[in-house]
Amino acid sequence: MKFYDFLDKAPAIGRLVIVEGTEQALAQRALDRLIERLLPPEMRDLNLVRVDADGVGDAACVREAVQAMPFLAQHRVVVVNEAQTLRAQERRDLWEVAQSVPEGNTLAIVDLLPARSQRPRPFGAIAGRAALRIDTTANVETRRRFVLETLQQLEASAAPAVVSALTESVADLAAVRNDLEKLALSGKKITLADLERESLSAPDPKAYRYASALVEGKTAQALDIVGELFALDPRGAAVPLLSALAAEYALLWDLARPGGRVPARLQWRERILRPIARRVGEARARNAYERAVRGVEAIVTGRAGSDPDDYRTLVERISAECTALSKTGSR
Length: 331
Description:
This protein has helices at residues 3-9, 24-38, 44-47, 60-67, 88-98, 123-127, 140-153, 160-168, 173-184, 192-198, 205-215, 219-232, 238-256, 270-280, 282-301, 308-328, and strands at residues 16-20, 48-51, 76-80, 105-110, 132-135. By secondary structure, it is of the alpha/beta class.
């Protein structure tokens, strides 16, 4: 069931709910609505248990919470967050618990994995019709409605071009919401210029795809995007490209650190980035990040010169250096 179908149609909530897809912002809203429907505010302290993935362990704590009877209420709700980060055995243990939830209780598992994921296989795909499945994957219609609802909640207004830009953006919806909250503080109608100047989550989607492709080892694809952007904007392409690259390597750097994790709003990307971070290592991820940042500084301060050909050469050189670092791996 799509996220907005869950909100609009209010289906029956049984013993097992799987929140799947990729959008953390929609997952949180789905959980809020689920809890709102099952537990009055005065009953939540005694009948709502939240377990983060780090606390699942062998699932004993989840089993104990799920098997407990509701206290002075009709329902008891147990939420397991970030199940997509669990190891294989932990997922098996959790699934065993999920199959024996007593009547009156609800186990909600937030498992934000792409629908076609094979390893691990999403809990929703395993459960099939045995669970209420809430899909947070956002298509264009979902993104547009989310943007319009967020503006309404903020009592803000925005130019149609802003709504279109955010609808078509590749940024996750949590970042879109954060940007709108920031821009709404001015109290004036949000313009496209405001968004382009202030937003941290609305870079050129092609710059974002360039950075992702380069980090994932798709160098030819990344350089094709570089060529395309420089053809469109010879002077303005370099900074967005290198900024996106710095942001991507900052994520790798965080993941490569002991206990490192990506921000909640980007956890849908963790399965792709964590193996890369493990291979690259903390020192090389930091090195690549710093090279991209220095590239931006060289352009902004004028050290890179003023010729667009110099900008493109700089981007291609840094791209090659970062690719070499990634291929070499950590030592």
